[in-house]
């Protein structure tokens, strides 16, 4: 069935890939984005699609959300992805991060309640804070350090509060679901110093400069290809009932690869991917509060969404490299 879908942050890395998938599936889509980090370049292959409307505006502003609703003539599903993402920003722009992540979510949530639209929140593994228990189960607790220690959790703690707000809305009758992507990567990701590790490593290859590995390089991540992440969002937004018969409203889903890799190992794998263009790597930098491991327990996503990651890391890195070489 065709749905009218609003994607906040739809010009960003994950949002734009989700928009393409929704259009491919025949849905009518509005993007609300202020282009703080996203761009029309991310939507270049669908910018003239007859079922896509792009509204430039601020997700914190309910009038801008309403403009997107009006453009669609109603909203059945909201995928709420607008946020300030990127570890460097969490420390450098904590107040802006908190403002968009909390006030933007509250504004989008209130509108979804007013419209009677299904709501999918893009949360994050950062919402668990410093919890060192691995793998992270979807119902595990959040643990945060003293606020005076660093500002990293401007992001994670605001995502935690977003989840609290969503659970409140569920109690008020909203159909809302929570997804937590674990380190999404793909060819369109940001590769500058405000970006994420895979993008930065490939940027170093393109610049033929050493890859900078933070800390001692032994910290691990569960890198998850963008196609797998988009599949998880898509299922969370489109299934009425869980594949196991459970209700999806109020449920949370960790979307992450089970292939844990250290950052030094990742640098080696990126070098393998690019063959003769391999570069050196240098240990430098990092951020206070960086986590040592981040491994998801994906049980709820497997059972209720029928989701599991399909793209192994080496294949995914090869896809990124091919995309970077052939992309405009
Ligand atoms: N990329 C990941 O690995 C990852 C992991 C966990 C959670 N997430 C979450 O998924 C979502 C998408 O992440 P992403 O990696 O695509 O980030 P992104 O920065 O590429 O996308 C976020 C989008 O939100 C837009 N935006 C920012 N402030 C806005 C505002 N006030 N009004 C309207 N739009 C605004 C940006 O311009 C951007 O297009 C975010 O909510 C992020 O927190 C991402």
Describe the structure.
With 328 residues, the chain is α/β, with parallel strands linked by helices. The chain has one domain: 3-Layer(aba) Sandwich (Rossmann fold), CATH 3.40.50.720. The chain is 39% helix and 15% strand. It is built from ten helices and 13 strands. It has a seven-stranded parallel sheet, sandwiched between helices. Strands 7-10 form a two-stranded parallel ribbon. A two-stranded parallel ribbon has the order 8-13. The two termini are 33 Å apart. The mean pLDDT is 95. The site of nicotinamide-adenine-dinucleotide has 28 residues, from helix 1, strand 2 and helix 4.
Q: What distinguishing features does this structure have?
A:
single chain; 328 residues; alpha/beta; Rossmann fold; 7-stranded parallel beta sheet; two-stranded parallel ribbon; 15% strand; binds nicotinamide-adenine-dinucleotide
Short description, anyone?
The chain is an alpha/beta fold. It is built from ten helices and 13 strands.
Strand content: 5-15%
Tell me which ligands are bound: nicotinamide-adenine-dinucleotide
Average predicted local confidence, pLDDT: 95
Give the biggest sheet.
7 strands, parallel
Output the helix-strand order.
Answer: EHEEHEHHEHEEHEEEHEEHEHH
Tally of DSSP β-strands:
13
* Main sheet: strand order: 3-2-1-4-5-6-11
CATH superfamily: NAD(P)-binding Rossmann-like Domain
The coarse overall form would be: globular
What gap, in angstroms, lies between the N and C termini? 33 Å
Q: Supply Rg.
A: 19 Å
Q: How many structural domains?
A: 1
What's the CATH topology label? Rossmann fold
- Oligomerization: single chain
Helical proportion, percent range: 25-40%
> What's the CATH class label?
Alpha Beta
Please identify the structural class as seen in this structure: alpha/beta
Helical stretch count?
10
């Amino acid at each position: 069935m065709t749905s009218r879908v609003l994607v906040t942050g739809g010009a960003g890395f994950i949002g734009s890939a989700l928009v393409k998938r929704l259009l491919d599936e025949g849905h009518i889509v509005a993007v609300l984005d202020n282009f703080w980090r996203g761009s029309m370049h991310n939507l270049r292959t669908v910018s003239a699609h007859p079922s896509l409307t792009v509204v430039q505006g601020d997700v914190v502003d309910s009038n801008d959300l309403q403009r997107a609703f009006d453009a669609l003539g109603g909203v059945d599903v909201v995928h709420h992805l607008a946020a300030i993402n990127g570890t460097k920003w969490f420390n450098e722009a904590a107040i802006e991060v908190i403002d968009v992540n909390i006030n933007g979510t509250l504004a989008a949530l209130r509108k979804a309640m007013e419209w009677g639209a299904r709501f999918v929140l893009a949360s994050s593994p950062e919402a668990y804070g410093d919890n060192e228990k691995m793998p992270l189960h979807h119902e595990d607790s959040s643990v945060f350090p003293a606020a005076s220690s660093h500002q990293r959790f401007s992001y994670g703690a605001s995502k935690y509060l977003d989840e609290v707000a969503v659970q409140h809305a569920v109690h008020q009758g909203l159909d809302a679901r929570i997804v937590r992507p674990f380190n999404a990567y793909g060819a369109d990701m940001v590769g500058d110093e405000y970006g994420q590790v895979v993008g930065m490593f490939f940027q170093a290859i393109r610049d033929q400069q050493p890859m900078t590995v933070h800390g001692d390089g032994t910290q691990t991540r569960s890198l998850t290809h963008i196609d797998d992440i988009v599949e998880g969002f898509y299922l969370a937004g489109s299934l009425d009932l869980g594949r196991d018969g459970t209700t999806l409203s109020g449920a949370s889903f960790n979307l992450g690869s089970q292939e844990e890799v250290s950052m030094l190992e990742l640098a080696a794998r990126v070098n393998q991917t690019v063959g003769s263009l391999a570069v050196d790597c240098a240990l430098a930098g990092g951020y206070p509060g960086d986590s040592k491991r981040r491994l998801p327990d994906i049980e709820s996503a497997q059972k209720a969404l029928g989701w599991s990651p399909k793209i192994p890391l080496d294949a995914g890195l090869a896809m990124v490299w091919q995309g970077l070489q052939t992309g405009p």
